[in-house]
Amino acid sequence: MMAHLGTKKAGAARVAGGGFGNRKNKQVQGNGMTGWWWGLWIASNVAGNVALRVVMHAEEIDGYMWANIATQISDWIGIPSSIATLLVVQRIYAMQMASLRRNAEAVDLS
Fold first, then answer.
1. 0.85 exceeded by the pTM?
2. 91 with 31: CB under 8 angstroms?
3. What distance, in Å, lies between the first and last C-alpha atoms of the chain?
4. Please, which of 44, 70, 90, 106 could form a disulfide with 77 given CB 3.0 to 4.6 Å?
């Protein structure tokens, strides 16, 4: 598969040093989901804060109706925010597992 890359000691040094090349300063490009998660998380928190303030100032049935609407909006924004969170966590997990496999291959080849 790959050419012999040196001794086990050299392979372990490559793994401990971050692998092949200088990857410490490498910027990883995302797929945009992190931006969606961040935006939805902020929107959900702002909507929740607005809903709380509307509830705290409600004194009559009309105020409580507006508070109910504000709370529902906050809850509905929270659903896609939760889905985006799940997708971001799955992507991070996949990247971590890919990195683990690459590092394991580097040590095995040494």
1. no
2. yes
3. 13
4. 44
